[in-house]
Amino acid sequence: MKTSLFHYDLPEALVAQRPLAQRDASRLLVLDRKTGRVTHSRVKDLAHWLLPEDLLVLNQTKVIPARLWAEKTETGAKIEIFLLRRTHPEDPYEWEALVSPAKRIKGNLILKVHPRGEAAILESLGEGHFIIRLNKTGSFQKFLAQAGHIPLPPYIHRADGAADWSRYQTVFAKTEGSVAAPTAGLHFTKKLFVDLRKRGVRTTPVILHVGLGTFLGVSSVDTEDHVMHPERFQIKTPAVKAVERARKKGGRVIAVGTTVVRTLESAVDERGVLTAQEGETRLFVTPGYPFRAIDALFTNFHQSESTLLMLVCAFAGRERVLAAYEEAIREKYRFFSYGDAMLIL
Prior knowledge:
single chain, Thrombin, subunit H, 9 helices, 17 strands, 28% strand
């Protein structure tokens, strides 16, 4: 189908540039995907919308400070390095990365990384992608903590600040590996989890390390021509058992974010049986996709013509989702990573 079918117009003023003071103070648009009915609420009242034995599935990935600033040693020209993923999971030094401006990269260069490090350009993969190897002083984690910057998305028109090191991270983040936040999870607080437990709502973790597969835009005219980049995921036996228990008890499996949707749907078979596994997924969900693993979705508002919006439209219906987005725009909801949220039941 045409990518343009997932277009909507968003006033620039509605793109959230900073998070609210309280994570769960965000507004919550609740969409009934059967009727299209929209109700306005708050994230802090999420427990009101859920039922005992419902299961929230959370992405425990942790964002790394993936943006590095470097310069060419011979000219001092400024270079941006955006780490994407390790080329070998066990090797912390060799990475696939976006290097910009790519036209300044000729051959096998050594770049100086601030404050104390180097990046060797090993191989060009085309379209600004390179294989690089980092040389550091001290431990790799210490190097990243000193040299790296929080990879705020380009629609946030400011440099990362001290607050972003905690706020562009979920309170339940555990395993490092993402270069963008699973933003639906940014709304959750310890108090909200207490309220959910009192309601009888359970939680279970999975992992999908966010990379290009999630945040790369769609440039093709037809959705079928878009190529999804691989992202690593993991779902363990306790999560599988939690899903099975929720189903047996009559609870709903609620994905917190599109990354959780893609994790669960990548690990379920045609009969709807979920299995513990880890690997890479290139799953691209568009309307017509037969969902087998989830019953509801808690998510943020997504960019026009993005793979994330296409997934949401596949789950709740394109016309209903776009109508809900128009309602959110009229009501001046805050959009994207630091913005408000949507619950689709």
